[in-house]
Design a protein that fits this description.
It is a single chain. This protein has 1 helix and 4 strands; from the N terminus they run αββββ. By secondary structure, it is of the alpha+beta class. Strands 1-2-3-4 form a 4-stranded antiparallel sheet, with helices on one face. A hairpin with a 2-residue loop joins strand 3 and strand 4.
Amino acid sequence: MKQHKKVFFESRNVRGFSLIELLITVAIIGIIAMIALPSYRSYMLESRRADARNALMQVQVKQEMYRGGHAAYASTVTDLSLSSTSESGYYTVSIGSADASGYTATAVPSGDQADDTECGTFAVTEDGKDTTGSYAGTGCW
């Protein structure tokens, strides 16, 4: 009887990735990530600003309802039955000053949103949005 030897690799045509090809691929992915991640982060910060605007609109509506039954505007968000954090939790909402003639409510960025140096704190008064002082600029609203 003839014996057959087991040959695992008869030909050397088996081809994989070389180390150079792998390093080039990793470098390309790294370059793409360096370009894409800052843009993505900026987009996320900008899109979360809607959370502050929504929270302050709720304060405005609740303040007008509260003022209808009281002699002055509410001085805290708890008086309005609202939370001190925005719906998604990216802003801390408070009422800085309130009396019979007006109020100022602010939304201060917190958590990851605190890195938003372009717009920062949003504020509204009884007349509408407040873009004066250190509050968010007109491009942020």
